[in-house]
Amino acid sequence: MIAASSKMKVLAVDDNRTNLHILQVFLKKLGHEVILAENGAEAVRHFAAEHPDLILLDIMMPVMDGFEAARRIKAMSQERWTPVIFLSALNRDENLVEGLDAGADDYLTKPINFVVLEAKLRSMQRSLALQQASVDALDRIKAISDNVLDAIVTIDEHGTIISVNRASERIFGWLTGELIGQNVSMLMPEPQQSAHDSFLERYLSGNGGAIIGANREVVALHRSGQRFPATLGVTETTLDNQRTFIGVIRDISQQKAAEQKLRENARLLQTYYDQTQNEQQLAVRLMEKQLHRAGLNDPRLHYKVIPAESFSGDIVAAARSPSGRFYALLADATGHGLTAAISVLPVLALFYRMSKLDSLVGEIIDELNQQLKESMPVGRFVAATLLCLDETSRRGEIWVGGTPEALLFDRWGRLQRSFASTNLPLGILHSSEIDCRPAAVSWDPESQLVLCSDGLLEASSKDGQQFGIGGLTAAAANTSPAARFEQIEAALAQHLSGSIAADDISLMLIDCP
Q1: What is the mean pLDDT of residues 290-309?
Q2: Could you tell me the CATH superfamily of domain 148-255?
Q3: Between the CA atoms of 132, 133, 135 and 138, what dihedral angle is there, to the nearest 10 degrees?
Q4: DSSP code of 429?
Q5: CA distances (Å), 102 to each of 44, 68, 79, 97, in order?
Q6: What is 181-220 written as a DSSP string?
Q7: pLDDT-derived band at 1, boundaries 50, 70, 90
Q8: 3-class SS at 57?
Q9: Would you call 382 helix, strand, or coil by DSSP?
Q10: Residue 3 has pLDDT above 60, yes or no
């Protein structure tokens, strides 16, 4: 940028070498760089090669006079203003007019008044500085515009494209030179293309819609003929006393494709959810039919199952044999949810079938283990407590494999005996490798047996404390047999304080006959 105080590159042209030498000395004294030429043709060549800031040009010269040289130089410097000052002994008005018509910016007669010349140079310097500032500002604006991702298109009041930024080429596929001077409707598909001019006329006459200052979705047209969705924002300004419209266009093809993909995914998810819900409802009905058997209504039995999810991997079952013996089962499959619930269905079917046959506890355990070993995948197993009570002899049997110990309380809620797990859960080992023999059970009047899953003992309070055997025995202590189950329930609810247990919880309390 040429500041008003900076120095210039000056092309001095004169066929008189003495005059050239005087000009050279004077200009260098002012600090300017000087290029010398002795005729118009030489001046044109130096101008093309050196790009001087200012030209001091004699008129009467051989080969090519100053008028013709000025015309050619002005034709070469359309994008950049280079001042031309004629220096001539011709001082008639027609010479001045001809010089100005040839493109001169000023005129100075010979002999040269160097004080005036210096003043004219300073004036030209200030003008060049203003020009350079305008060019720099325009370059900055263009650089910013070209680095905007959206297309920026300006049109006049006739719809003719005045300017576009670089993004317009990428978005519409047209080169800048192919867009400038064309009607902006070329960027629109039909019917908008044919209707745009009349729409613009209505707007200019005050009858158009309120389109200024708001973004709206439109359909744009690529050079290839491909339509694409876009957003358009239009603003209006006045430049050189002419109404000018600035349109900012953003290609939203990817956004629309993403929205369509999201809608499609949402539809697929909804379909999957609906199918899953239907399947779960069917599974619930099937599970309820398997789980809620008449034996669970036995007056000697009190139970509760709290699933961690929609389905519980814990099950409780009870049945009376034809001889009147009371059977009870508490089973806990690996994990929780539907997969765990499915794992215990074979256990239920075998339990109810074999209890009807008055089978011994050891026989039932052997059958259950064999069935699970054959049908369950590796890593899946079922912990279980199985018992059988005979009211006539007041004797019973109990087998515990993988579940917490079973507890026998007397009528005052004191712990009389516990039956710890001495076996692995069912489905891990072959039946020949496990001990199916149960432990013998005897009891005093009004005693009660309590069975539970590890989910009850591991149920944690908000401060991380587990309910544990201690919580169970404390809840049972000093209670009557009739109120004991409700007391344990209340103690567990108070311990959880509304929080959700991490695992399925099951609890059985059996009144001993």
Answers
A1: 83
A2: PAS domain (3.30.450.20)
A3: 180
A4: S
A5: 14, 7, 18, 9
A6: TSBGGGGS-TTHHHHHHHHHHHHHTT-S-S-BT-EEEEEE
A7: very low
A8: strand
A9: strand
A10: no
Counted residue by residue, the chain has a size of 513
Determine contact, residues 513/326, Cβ cutoff 8 Å: yes
Phi-psi region of 53 (alpha: psi -120 to 50; beta: other; left: phi over 0): alpha
Answer CATH for 9-145 from 3.40.50.2300, 1.10.1040.10, 3.30.1120.10, 1.10.10.10: 3.40.50.2300
**CATH 3.60.40.10 domain span(s) along the chain:** 291-511
Predicted confidence band at 95 (pLDDT cuts at 50, 70, 90)? low
Sheet holding 395-401, edge to edge: 314-320, 326-333, 382-390, 395-401, 439-442
Residue type, 386: L
- Helix H segments across 292-360? 338-343, 345-355
Whole-angstrom distance, CA of residue 105 vs CA of residue 93: 15
Q: Which CATH superfamily groups domain 291-511? A: PPM-type phosphatase domain (3.60.40.10)
Q: Which amino acid does the sequence have at 100?
A: L
The Cα 137–Cα 415 span in angstroms is 94
| pLDDT band for position 4 (cuts 50, 70, 90) | very low
